Structure formats: structure tokens, C-alpha cells
Amino acid sequence: MLNQFTRTELLLGKEAMEKLANSRVAVFGIGGVGGYTVEALIRSGVGAVDLIDDDKVCLTNINRQLYATRKTIGKYKVDIAAERIAEINPKAVVRTYKTFYTPQTADQFDFAEYDYVVDAIDTVTGKIGLVLQAQAANTPIVSSMGAGNKLDPTAFEVADLYETSVCPLAKVMRKELSRRGVTQLKVVYSKEKPMTPIDDMAISCRENCICPPGTARKCTQRRQVPGSTAFVPPVVGLIIAGEVIKDLIKLENSSK
């Protein structure tokens, strides 16, 4: 029977589609990277997703984030994502958490419930926590390394964390996870050297924060506000989604 996933089934087959429909994926962070990951997962037929992000849409998100439009400014990203998912696949089961993942909020999540975890958050402490929690539950995880301050979407690749180079975030993660006994981690990263954002306070959120009222973590609290584009974070998000799909259905040519 024809349905919205027919074109995908022509490539993956019925058994794979049934596997995806019965899978639950948790996506931590649904901004520039994670939003596109969620979109691809749902359009691929994943039947259940948990969306974890405490952020609201800001005007400065519009240049790169799927859920950001003039109409959605000030709304929670997870709420907008849930509405969009319902329009794509009404049968999909969606759980939303307006939560900033940290070691202090980790107990809200049972990783044993997930078939896969996506790390698309931007704090080292949170990323480490996700990896350790996934490892403890024996749940596969893929982690996004630095996507900000970069301009070449073709430079991103899938690799084990300990095979990465150049990326500053990956370097920190290698050091911290090695100390904690983590021996492998699938990541999406780039060897492109990050650019330094233009030092112009007139266009910087550091001194001209326009975050919506009620935003818990404002740009003024950051040491640096990274630059970004419409064509880099989405590519990272789609690569991640592809890895999740391939691993869930055990596609033979999945990247290792």
C-alpha cells in the first residue's frame, strides 16, 4: 500500500521500514543540527522520538534553524517540532522535554528505553554526560562536534572520536572521555579550521541580546557567540540522521 514512506521502502525494504517504525530515538538539542536530524528521522519513518531542548526560538535562529520563522519567535522549539512532526506523520509518538541536559537533569531520562541517542548539544559537560549515560545503558549514540564558525559543508565526515583531528571540540572530548575510560564514540566532525567571528559588538548577541522573555540561557552568558550559516548545521544534522537510520536497520555500508 502506498504511503508517505513508499519511496524510502523502495530502497530499504519492508522489514527495515517496520524496524524504523518500532524504534525510539532521543535527540538532545534541536537547534541548527538537531532540528534537521529530527526532520530526517521522521521523514524516514522512525516511529517515536524524544525531543530534549529548553530553548525558545530567537530572531537570530532564523538564518539556520528549521523551526525558526518570524511566526515561531518566542515559542519553545520542542513544541514547534512536535506540531511539525504531527503534520508529517500523525502516527509518530513524540515526547517533549523543556529541559537543558546536564548531570543534574540526567535522571529524567532512561536511556534503556532508546534504540539510539543523538547528541546535538553544545556544552562539553552535557556531551560527556550523554556519552556516559548511553554507554551505561548500552545504547548507541552519535555525537555532533563543532559546526559553528565553519563554512565548508563538504568537509564533514563520520569517524571515531579518537581518529579525529583539527576540531577543537573533538580534542577536548577525546581528553575528557579518555580519562573516563570511554574507548570509542561515533562523531560527525570537520577538519576545517574554525574561523574567528568578526569582533563587532553592534552585531553581537553578547551585548545586544534579543532572546525571548523567559529564556533561561541568554547569549550574554556565553564566552563567545559563534557565527553560523544556513548550509553547514543542516548538513551535519542530515549526516547524523543517516547514520542513525543505517545503524538501526543494520545497513551493511554504514560508516563505522
State the shape: globular
Q: How much of the sequence is in beta strands?
A: 5-15%
Overall pLDDT level: 92
Give helix % range. 25-40%
- What distance separates the N and C termini? 34 Å
Q: Treating each run of at least 4 consecutive H or I residues as one helix, how many helices? A: 7
Structural class, please? Answer: alpha/beta
Strand/helix succession: HHEHEHEEHEEHEH
User: How much is the radius of gyration in Å?
Assistant: 18 Å
Describe the structure.
With 256 residues, the chain is α/β, with parallel strands linked by helices. The chain has 7 helices and 7 strands. A 7-stranded mixed sheet has the order 3-2-1-4-5-7-6, sandwiched between helices. Helix 1 (6-12) packs across helix 2 (14-21) and helix 3 crosses helix 7 (233-248). The protein is globular, with a radius of gyration of 18 Å. It starts with 5 loop residues before the first helix and ends in an 8-residue tail after the last helix.
Helix and strand topology:
Blueprint: H1 6-12, H2 14-21, E1 24-28, H3 34-43, E2 48-52, H4 77-88, E3 93-97, E4 116-119, H5 124-137, E5 141-144, E6 156-160, H6 168-179, E7 186-190, H7 233-248
Parallel strand pairs: 1-2, 1-4, 2-3, 4-5, 5-7
Antiparallel strand pairs: 6-7
Relevant terms:
256 residues; alpha/beta; seven-stranded mixed sheet; 7 helices
Short overview:
The protein is an alpha/beta fold. Helices cover 31% and strands 13% of the residues.
